[in-house]
Amino acid sequence: MPAWPAAPGPSSAAPPGGGNEHPRALASAPTSADPCHSPTGSHSYQYFYTGVSDPGSDVPAFTALGYMDDQQILHYDSETRREEPRGDWVQGAVDPDFWDRETWALRGWQEGFEGNLITLQFRYNQTDGSHTLQFMYGCEIHEDGSTGGYMRLGYDEREFISYDLITCTWVAVPTQARITQRKWNEDKSLLQYTRAYLEEECIAWLRKYLQHGTAALQSKPPKAQVSNRLLFQDGLTTLSCWVHGFYPKKISVVWLKNGEAQPQEMSHSGVIPSGDGTYQTRATIEIDPSSNHDYICSVKHVSLGVDLRVAWDKSRKEPESSMMLIVGIIIAVVLVIALLGAALYFLRRWGT
Questions:
Q1: pLDDT tens-digit readout, 88-142
Q2: Residue 343 — φ and ψ, nearest 5°?
Q3: Helices (H), the chain
Q4: Which residues lie within the region annotated Disordered (predicted)?
Q5: Per residue in 241-298, pLDDT tens?
Q6: Which H or E run contains 170?
Q7: Which residue of 14, 64, 117, 145 pairs with 5 in a disulfide if CB–CB is 3.0 to 4.6 A?
């Protein structure tokens, strides 16, 4: 049976293994956080632990990732065997001994994941194949000041067991989890500790990180650039709107044709991290350059008072388009020279 601690905090509790079913917190809740502080908007604090039975060169056997909102702030994996901050501001939110304590705790989690993966394969009657075990937990503060939390385990991308904060009990999903459900629900101290962590300790850590990360997590307005690329095969032009440097992640980008949105004609690349704490995305649309329509890239973001709009300049020739035109001309010239050379060769042979 998987042996899990009920309430890791902030990223650790009793290592999940060796039959240990009782939690033991290795890091206490912060005492410097202001319990009356109510941040603007909704914020979350989450952890994701992942273990795989068949690790590879680019897939560690165990990883632990911590997030404040949608920004990664903590990282551990079985290759480095060390928890490290992601972001300079995170260092100032904890005491100097924090990283050593968390590193030792997560090494225990790593060992526990290895043992529990074997146990679960036995419980599911599996003898081979690659399998994944995940532990996810976190809490959030909503815009109205209310709080919430969750804690659940997943096996092979399906939910195994979760904690219900309303009934304060563990709920099994597949039949293989019923043994674990019964044992954990019989442990009253375990249930009490889990509830206390999600309702109090996790929220305290969330407030603490919010206090130290205000500047790093504040809204950043997007920048937008419009470019065009000629498609030789059909004479159309692809307009591209690159939006970058924004935070938070949620954003809306749409192309306007004569002031009307064209969502069905567009393609989106998706919103991806830029590597500096901000995000970027790209929206494209194919048009007939000979038509007399006006095209504008319109961007909506929480950091903007009004929509950001960047128009396509029809008279401007983008370096990319010009370069492609030059390449096309060069290819055409080379083909002509090759054809002339072949013609002269055959003429000489026939003449001889």
A1: 788 888 998 999 999 999 999 999 999 999 999 999 999 889 999 999 999 999 9
A2: -65, -45
A3: 88-91, 98-123, 178-186, 188-196, 202-212, 214-217, 319-351
A4: 1-38
A5: 999 999 888 999 999 999 999 988 899 989 998 877 789 999 999 998 888 899 999 9
A6: strand 169-172
A7: 14
Asked if 326 and 278 count as a contact pair (C-beta separation under 8 A), the reply is no
pTM: 0.68
Structure tokens given for 27? 């890091």
Per residue, what are the HEC states of 252-297? EEEEEECCEECHHHEEECCCEECCCCCEEEEEEEEECCCCCCCEEE
Helix, strand, coil percentages in the chain from 3-state DSSP, rounded to 5:
30, 30, 40
CA 255/CA 234 separation, integer angstroms = 21
Q: What type of residue sits at position 338? A: A
Q: Which CATH superfamily is domain 43-217 in?
A: MHC class I-like antigen recognition-like (3.30.500.10)
Q: List the strands of the sheet with 84-85, edge to edge.
A: 84-85, 71-77, 62-68, 43-52, 132-141, 147-155, 158-164, 169-172
**Which tokens is 68 given?**
């404040």
What is the torsional sign of CA 185, 189, 194, 196? positive
From the CB of residue 55, how many other CB atoms can be counted at a distance below 10 Å? 15
DSSP H/E element including 160: strand 158-164
Residue 149's nearest CA partner among 134, 132, 133, 137 is 137
Give the integer Cα–Cα distance in Å for 124 and 108.
Answer: 24
Fold for the domain defined by 223-317: Immunoglobulin-like (2.60.40)
Q: Shortest CA distance to 129 belongs to which of 117, 112, 115?
A: 117
